Structures are given as structure tokens and as C-alpha cells.
Amino acid sequence: MRFMSQKEEQSKRFSTLSDLEIKPLYTAQDLKNFNPKTELADPGEFPYTRGIHKTMYRGKRWTIRLFSGFGTAEETNQRYHILLERGQHGLSVAFDMPTLMGIDSDDSRSLGEVGKCGVAIDTLADMERLFQGIPLDQVTTSMTINGPAIVLLAMYFVVAQKQGVSLDKVGGTIQNDILKEYIAQKEWIYPPRPSMRIIQDMIVYCTQHAPKWNTISISGYHIREAGSTAAQELAFTLADGLGYVQAGIEAGLDVDQFAPRLSFFFNAHSDFFEEIAKYRAARRMWARFMRDRFHAKNPKSWLMRFHTQTAGCSLTAQQPYNNIVRTAIQALSGVLGGTQSLHTNSMDETLSLPTELSATIALRTQQIIAEETGVVNTPDPFGGSYFVESLTNELERQALDMIQKINEMGGIIPAIEQNYPQKEIARASYHYQKQLETGEKVIVGMNKYIQKEEGLPIEILYIDDKAQKNQIASLKKIKEKRDEKKVQAALQRLRKAAEGKDNLVPPIMEAVSLYATLGEVSDTMKEIFGTYTERSVI
Amino acid sequence: MRPLRLLVSKAGLDGHDRGVKVVARALRDAGVEVIYTGLHQTPEMIVASALQEDVDAICVSILSGAHLALIEKIQKLLKSKKLSHLPVILGGIVPDEDFKKLAKLGVQKIFTPGASLQEIVTYVKSHIQPQV
């Protein structure tokens, strides 16, 4: 190793993971125009830069919520029981690709995909098996589903009703963020405009019947995973949020009726301070948008509550044990940034879905942060740091510039239709890849400190094609058993509602309770709404 | 000699297109003619594009775990169109134990997480020849 004199800096340019340049030192000079009263205030006070609660984790710890789902509903149900026994607080359902696309397991397009990336759900029967023995008034459930979210939510509500739980007692979150699907995650069904109508119907229905349900989890996570910078994640996520608030208002609701049930979902990537600054900027920006642009009066509408997941894209297949360390550091940034709930990735996620062992280590990582490190002792410990405040300001400034650009395009839907966020993300992701190629950015074990012998072998969860066969067989049985006439009549009522203006939730709840399949319900709406095709940009 | 022409595609329902787009762009920057099909391509669509576009190889990206089923179907269709000479290159998340099965199914090369753009470009340029 070459030693350097203390005065010499190691390279010409220091920058964050998102390539934001960092100065040699931050001092009081950097905050000379900064008014802590208006920019920070205390935790629990507008604009909530320091956190949404006065006491933060002294009052209530974040919710440990590990995303899981694989194979059939029975297998996933067993994993849920294990996670709940080991101290997890809430459930988080991962669905397989066909379910995410609103396609049944017996569709030819589902070949090889059933149960692979999550659990397969075709009918209410699967949903009933998934939550077998789990009282839905006592756990909260988060469901990561977007294009067909309305169908899965309807199934969940019907399962709750069948358990004897009334909908006003049901709590949880459905991702239901279709805008980021067009931008980043790419699991869509209908074009943007009819998709927004579906979301409006869900917001209206939940506002009236399931007031504890979080109707949208506005997600930057996938935007970041697709290769965006931290500032882009911030900008596009908030722009999506503004689009949903606008849609709710256009559906005839008062902003304060539904805004408190909107929540957010961010990535926790590897640049520790950049991430913390991002969460702080996000809260401040959202509070101001809600109060000043939409004139929300209820302080609950101003609060940005968010879930955090550590960055899957940062994990390496090489020396996979290192991923435990990465995840712990990322999780810590989420906690120091004031997250309300947290998913920690398992070390094997670049290879497969997590094994029981790796999922348990991920769970324990959060418990160690919560119980051993002392970071819960006081809210926003970085508040007032010259560096963190400067970085928070800078990310806010960059994100506001991009949001302004989106406003000029007429809002997020026209911006998506013009491929603006998609192009920006593709450019950022290519730029980062180039930096990895030149070694300007480092991933340990991948482009530096490469080891021929990788050390301990790791076991991975292998999902074979049995799940597909079992799932198709059980779907066939359900279709034979159900009352076909009633199903078709219910689908016809749904068609009518889709053509007109009636809320879509009740006819979908009716159809799924008669065991209409996810694919049948989705296809019925496709007849009216059409399907989306992306104009690809490289 | 004309430049290499590659079909670059996302097979199946998986929407993870960060990797495929980065690879497509790197190949294009390296002088390869890239025909990017976009997302959610069925094996039928991929083989039809390969035929219509007269490509020199098919690059497929799959991160959903459906690689065995999808590759098998693609190879079967290639055979039926008398295109089984076309090299198939796979990129994505592939467990080690599937490598042999995929080779047997006729996959010429597999790139997994951590492969560098340079590696991919070099491989393509040295192993794929423009068809005559």
C-alpha cells in the first residue's frame, strides 16, 4: 500500500454513489442562509425534516416487515407463521410474475414463471390459503402489487369478511403505484389514464369503507433499482405522489379525506449520508407540497410516512456473505433517516429467493440495530450537521428542478408518455455502469478485491416446476366447482361498471367471491381499457 | 463485412430491464447493430423477430427464474424455423446447477450478475460472426 502525506487527497474528485460532488469540508459557511426554524423545526413539527413524530423511535419502533412469498399459497403461509413467531410485526406479500401481470397460472404466458418470484394467486381460494390461521384484524399486511392491485385488494377484503373481520378494522398497505411501473418496474396492464381511474375508485372505496387501509405506497424503490440517482428517486417519486393527489381531488374527494392514507416507499442504497439526506429532503418537500400546493389542512396529510427496503441492486453474487454487511449499513441509514418500516434483504437475493436461514439473518440485522446500537435513543441524530444539512438541501434543490420540468410537461402522466423519467434513469444507470467499468466506483468483490475462491458455499432456495403443476391442478378444480353462470353474470356487471362510472371495487369483490380468476377479472377490464405497450428507449 | 446484428430481448413476464438496456447500449456503442425487442416477449415473438430481422445471434435476459422453460421453448421454435444454428446467449440470474441443463438446451454462453460490459462486448465480438 502506498502511503500519502496528510495533506494530499487520494483522488481528484470525491462524489456520492449518485455522482454528486462532495467538497473537502462542510462548515457553518455552508449553512449561512439556512434557517433551522423553517427548514428543520423539531421532530413532529412542520416541515418534518427531522421526523414525523416528536419522540420517533423512543415512542414507537419502526415495523420490521420482511417481504416474502414463493411457490404456492400453502408454502408461503408456512413461512409467514415462522416469521410471525420469530418476532416480525407485519406481513408483506411477494407475488409471482403472472399474478403481477394479472395473468392466470394456466395461461401459456405463465410458462416457467409460476411461484418463482413470489406466491401464485389465481383465485380467492389461494388468498384464503395464504392467510390461513392469520387473523386479519391483528396483523397488518403489505401487498406488493400494482397493475391488478384492485383485484388482489378485493380478494383480501373478502377473506377478511369471511373471517368475520369488518373492513374498518383491516389495516395494511397495497403498493398500487402504477406510475412507477411505467417508469421503472414495468409490470403494467392498462394504459396510464384508465389505470388512474382504477386507482381513483380504490381511493374512494377505501376512504368510505376501509379507512385504516393505505391505498397507495408511492414507490421510489424500483426507480432506484432501475438505476436512477438519489435525486431522481426523490423527484420522480414525489412527482408520482403529486399525480395521485391530483387524481384523488379530481375524483371529488377533499384532499384531507385521503392524503393521510398515502404512504411512501424508498430505497436504502449504499451511500450512507446521501440516503439519510434523501429521506430528510423527501419529508420536507412533501409537507410543503401538501400544505402549500394542495392546501391540505389536516397535519396528517402533510406527513410523509415511508417504508424502506435495502438496495437489492447493490448486492453481489460474488462473496455473497458480504451482502449481510451491506444490508446492515443500508438499513442503518433508513433508521437514521426516520423510516416507519423496514425490509432488509437477504444475502442470497442475487441468486434466488431467500432461504429460511438467510431471511432470519436479515430479520436479526434489524433487531440488532434496534436493540444493540443505541440509534433509537434520539430522533434525527444528524440534524444540524453541516454536511448532512447541505446534502439535504442539495438533493431537494435537484429534485425540485426535475419536478418543475415535469410540471412544465403537464404533470407526471404526460412526462411518462414522453419517456422523460425513463430516459433519465437509463442515462444514469449507464453512467454508473461505466464508472464501475473504469473502477471509478467500486463494488467490493465484483470490480475490486476479487477472490477466486469465494469462501463458504451458500445454500439457495430452489423452486422447481412442481409449484406450477400443483397450482394449475388446483385452479382447474376450482373452475369446475364454482357456479359458472353466476361468475359470468358478475363479470358482466364488472364490464358495465368499467364502461360507465360506477366504482369498480364492489363488482370485483363480488366476482372474486364467486371464484372468478384474477385473469378473468383483468381480461374483462382489458376489453374496455385496452393494454399498454411501451415505446422502448435504450 | 457487415456489422454484427443482434437481437436483444427480455423473455417472459419479468420487467427487470436495467441490465438488458445497459448491455444493449454498450453493444451499440461498440458498433454492433442492436435490435431491442422491449419487454414481455414470448418465445414465439422472440423467434419471429430473429427470423424477420435476420440476426446473427439472440441475446435473452431473464431474471425471474423462468429461464429453463423459456429457453427450451425458444430452442424448440428455432428448430422448427430451421434457425437452430443461431447462437443463443443468456443473461440474468441463473443458479449454478442450471448451467449444465442450459448448455444441453443449446445456450452458447451465460452471463450472470457481476459480468462486466467489456467482458460481454469482447465475447460477442470474438464468438459471433455475421452470417453470410
Q: What percentage of the residues of chain B does DSSP assign to strands (E)?
A: 15-25%
**Main sheet record of chain A:** 5 strands, parallel
As for the CATH topology of chain A, it is TIM Barrel
Please bin the fraction of helical residues of chain A.
40-55%
Radius of gyration of chain A: 23 Å
- Structural class determined from secondary elements of chain B: alpha/beta
Biggest chain pair interface? A-B, 43 and 37 residues
- How many domains of chain B? The number is 1
First-to-last CA distance of chain B: 9 Å
Please tell me the overall pLDDT of chain A.
94
Please count the beta strands of chain B (DSSP E, at least 2 residues each).
Answer: 5
> So, the CATH homologous superfamily of chain B?
Cobalamin-binding domain
Q: On the 0-100 scale, what is the average pLDDT of chain B?
A: 94
Helix content of chain B: 40-55%
Quick one: CATH class of chain B? Alpha Beta
Query: Which radius of gyration of chain B do the C-alpha atoms yield?
Result: 13 Å
Overall 3D shape of chain B: globular
Structure annotation, total helices of chain B? 5
Low-confidence stretches of chain B: none
Low-confidence stretches of chain A: none
Essential attributes:
heterodimer; A: 538 residues; alpha/beta; TIM Barrel; five-stranded parallel sheet; 21 helices; 48% helix; B: alpha/beta; Rossmann fold; 5 strands; 41% helix; globular
Summarize this entry quickly:
Chain A has 538 residues and is α/β, with parallel strands linked by helices.
Explain the overall architecture.
The complex is a heterodimer of chains A (538) and B (132). With 538 residues, chain A is of the alpha/beta class. Chain A has one domain: Alpha-Beta Barrel (TIM Barrel). In chain A, 48% of the residues lie in helices and 7% in strands. Chain A is built from 21 helices and 10 strands. In chain A, strand 9, helix 13 and strand 10 form a beta-alpha-beta unit. In chain A, helix 2 runs parallel beside helix 4, helix 13 packs across helix 14 and helix 19 packs parallel to helix 21. The longest helix of chain A has 24 residues. With 132 residues, chain B is of the alpha/beta class. Chain B has a single domain, classed as Cobalamin-binding domain (Rossmann fold, 3-Layer(aba) Sandwich). Chain B is 41% helix and 20% strand. Chain B has 5 helices and 5 strands. A 5-stranded parallel β-sheet of chain B has the order 2-1-3-4-5, sandwiched between helices. In chain B, helix 4 links the parallel strand 4 and strand 5. In chain B, helix 1 packs across helix 5 and helix 2 crosses helix 3. Chain B starts with a strand and ends in a 5-residue tail after the last helix. At the A-B interface, helix 3 and helix 17 of A face helix 1 and helix 3 of B.
